[in-house]
């Protein structure tokens, strides 16, 4: 577990924003798991965030960002997005390696450097994982014509549009299977145990539903 001091206000707020974008009902246990901190540390942090007007806590314990909290989370998400693009577009770092690096660097970006990154890269666009600055909800992604790989039909070619990027081990695993952003993928069989038989440029593999749920695709 991390010491609570090493997990900033911005980390908590961005985690809530990202968890909501994955369609989760965010509770304190979600943050403890996502941020690798103890339950007591999360409880203390949420008390401060609620007191300072960043977070709203419903009667069922579900957490929501206030307008103030959303603004702070968005600024952190923007810095993260810009750093990922910088690492990829300027330094050529692999897409499956940059999330953790951006997590470490996002708090060190000064307003002046952030402005320079925006000037160089633009505030819009997508990161190397195919995600926009502000995390999108599953409903919004579906309105854009995307679907989760776990819902893909058999014998139709799809393009990998985006991937949830929080788990670096999952990203490396998907990369080894050839499930990269903009890669072509075909589901050859939907199996009875909810696994998928898939074909990529790397070969033929079996992919479990938890991993397939983290990949968004569109028809080729």
Q: Outline of this structure?
A:
The chain is an alpha+beta fold and 220 residues long. It has helices at 9-21, 28-35, 39-51, 67-90, 98-105, 111-121, 138-143, 168-177, 209-212, and strands at residues 55-57, 63-65, 147-148, 157-163, 184-190, 196-200, 203-207, 215-219.
Structure description:
This protein is α+β, with helices and mostly antiparallel strands and 220 residues long. It has three domains: 4-65, Orthogonal Bundle (Arc Repressor Mutant, subunit A), CATH 1.10.10; 80-121, Iron dependent repressor, metal binding and dimerisation domain (Diphtheria Toxin Repressor, domain 2), CATH 1.10.60.10; 141-219, Roll (SH3 type barrels), CATH 2.30.30. It is 44% helix and 17% strand. The chain is built from nine helices and eight strands. The chain has helices spanning 9-21, 28-35, 39-51, 67-90, 98-105, 111-121, 138-143, 168-177, 209-212, and strands at residues 55-57, 63-65, 147-148, 157-163, 184-190, 196-200, 203-207, 215-219. Strands 3-8-4-5-6-7 form a six-stranded antiparallel beta sheet. A hairpin with a 2-residue loop joins strand 6 and strand 7. Helix 2 packs across helix 3. Mean pLDDT is 90; it is low at 1-6.
> What is the typical, i.e. mean, pLDDT?
90
CATH topology name of the largest domain, in short, is SH3 type barrels
Unreliable runs, pLDDT <50, ≥5 residues?
A: 1-6
Shape, per Cα inertia axes: globular
CATH architectural arrangement of the largest domain? Roll
Count of alpha/pi helices: 9
How far the N terminus sits from the C terminus, by CA atoms, comes to 43 Å
């Amino acid at each position: 577990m991390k010491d609570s001091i090493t997990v900033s206000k911005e980390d908590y707020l961005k985690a809530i924003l990202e968890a909501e974008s994955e369609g989760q009902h965010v509770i304190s246990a979600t943050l403890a798991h996502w941020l690798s901190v103890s339950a007591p540390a999360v409880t203390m942090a949420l008390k401060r965030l609620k007191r300072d007007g960043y977070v709203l806590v419903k009667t069922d314990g579900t957490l929501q960002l206030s307008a103030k909290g959303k603004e702070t989370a968005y600024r952190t998400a923007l810095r993260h997005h810009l750093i990922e693009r910088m690492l990829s577009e300027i330094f050529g770092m692999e897409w499956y390696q940059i999330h953790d690096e951006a997590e470490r660097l996002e708090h060190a970006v000064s307003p002046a450097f952030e402005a320079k990154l925006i000037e160089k890269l633009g505030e819009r666009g997508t990161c190397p994982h195919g995600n926009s600055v502000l995390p999108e909800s599953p409903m919004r992604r579906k309105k854009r014509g995307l679907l989760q790989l776990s819902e893909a039909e058999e014998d139709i070619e799809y393009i990998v549009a985006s991937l949830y990027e929080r788990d670096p081990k999952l990203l490396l695993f998907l990369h080894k299977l050839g499930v990269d952003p903009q890669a072509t993928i075909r589901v050859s069989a939907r199996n009875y145990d909810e696994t998928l038989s898939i074909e990529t440029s790397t070969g033929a593999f079996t992919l479990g539903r938890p991993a397939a749920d983290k990949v968004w695709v569109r028809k080729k």
